[in-house]
Amino acid sequence: MKAALVLLCLALFMALCVAVYGCNPDGNNKPDCTNSTNVQVKIRNFWDPTRYWWCASLGSQDPVVKTCESETESTEETTGFDPTTKSCIPWGQWKWVDPCA
């Protein structure tokens, strides 16, 4: 009985660790467009600070990679994606943020 309780506690601990540390900083953070929380939200691309992911509608389609430069006119300065504000900002204001912080 004690062994079963210990194994149960160990399994719960492992599940909690996976849930908390589910972020993969080596991945590209490509979202799942079948999840409603990812739809119509700009999501950081871990591999390129000038790009972000976009799920236009709920469904099984792949997300679209959008560039910050496509949002600005050619006369404006180039921008990077800020995951805190979920918007493209000038490089002078952009700061690197740990992907899994």
UniProtKB/TrEMBL annotation:
Domain of life assignment: Eukaryota
Sorted UniProt keywords: Signal
Leader sequence segment: 1-19
PANTHER family documented for this protein: CHITIN-BINDING TYPE-2 DOMAIN-CONTAINING PROTEIN-RELATED
Protein name (Swiss-Prot/TrEMBL): Uncharacterized protein LOC108054037
Native species: Drosophila rhopaloa
